[in-house]
């Protein structure tokens, strides 16, 4: 069409939000990497890679998990989140990001892979009704913009650390998506592995609902969400007190 500038060659970037759960602390975690080169050298970011010519986006998302933390996962552990195409998301060559979420059933020992100088688990939580990621003294906030365009149009808040690129917005979209699916498709429970207790499930729900474990009643939770779970019996003895019942997520 005359007068219309076509976008012929955007870079296709794969971003993967890798979630997991630490049973010792009963906390949800998200993986971040420190970038080893420009742009945004030494800034923390979500793991990412460029899609290769002979692979699908789904394959690239799983490859990213293998390259960053050395795990080969089945495809059901990963789901597509959204596509991010705003022209303002990159400063130079136009790049489109396909974002995925991966639910790790274990927290392996981390080793920084290609493009990263450090890799670390950040505890997922909330403060002042905002989602955040915490590791030691490092704190990153999810974006509080109400719309995608509002995020890209507003200046970044000064006086606080920021994730690279538009990863604060992607993090916000991911956390909100998980929260909105808790009542009908809580795939986030895959981070608990093959079996888990109701208490562990409630521990996963709590930060996304911006509440505490104690505020989610066990009996009510079983009534409202039991249809999403399969009862697989009683846990093997090995802890004091009455052994809890174990459950498994019903996959569609």
Describe this structure in words.
GO terms for molecular function: hydrolase activity. This is NUDIX family hydrolase. By secondary structure, the protein is an alpha+beta fold. The protein has 5 helices and 11 strands. The protein has helices at 57-69, 148-153, 167-181, 198-208, 218-225; strands at residues 11-22, 27-35, 44-45, 48-50, 78-84, 95-103, 116-127, 130-135, 138-141, 229-234, 245-249. The strands form 2 sheets. Strands 1, 2, 3, 4, 5, 6, 7, 8 and 9 form a 9-stranded mixed β-sheet that branches. A two-stranded antiparallel ribbon has the order 10-11. A hairpin with a 4-residue loop joins strand 1 and strand 2 (27-35). It starts with 10 loop residues before the first strand and ends with a strand. 32% of the residues are buried. The model has no long low-confidence stretch (mean pLDDT 88).
């Amino acid at each position: 069409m005359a007068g219309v500038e076509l976008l012929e060659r955007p870079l296709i970037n794969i971003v993967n939000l890798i979630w997991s759960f630490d049973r010792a602390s009963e906390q949800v975690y998200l993986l971040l990497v420190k970038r080893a080169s420009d742009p945004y050298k030494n800034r923390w970011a979500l793991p990412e890679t460029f899609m290769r010519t002979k692979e699908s986006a789904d394959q690239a998302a799983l490859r990213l998990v293998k390259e960053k933390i050395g795990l080969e996962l089945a495809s059901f552990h990963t789901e597509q989140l959204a596509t991010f195409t705003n022209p303002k998301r990159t400063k130079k060559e136009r790049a489109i990001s396909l974002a995925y979420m991966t639910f790790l059933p274990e927290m392996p020992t981390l080793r920084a892979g290609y493009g990263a100088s450090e890799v670390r688990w950040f505890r997922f939580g909330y403060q002042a009704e905002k989602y955040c990621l915490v590791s030691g003294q490092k704190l990153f906030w999810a974006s509080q913009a109400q719309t995608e365009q509002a995020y890209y149009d507003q200046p970044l808040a000064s006086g606080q650390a920021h994730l690279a690129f538009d990863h604060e917005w992607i993090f916000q979209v991911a956390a909100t998506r998980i929260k909105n699916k808790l009542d009908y498709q809580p795939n986030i429970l895959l981070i608990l592995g093959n079996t888990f207790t109701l208490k562990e499930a409630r521990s996963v729900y709590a930060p996304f609902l911006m509440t505490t474990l104690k505020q989610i009643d066990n009996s009510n939770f079983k009534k409202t969400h039991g249809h999403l779970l399969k009862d697989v019996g009683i846990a093997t003895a090995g802890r004091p007190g009455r052994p809890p019942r174990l459950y498994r997520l019903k996959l569609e």
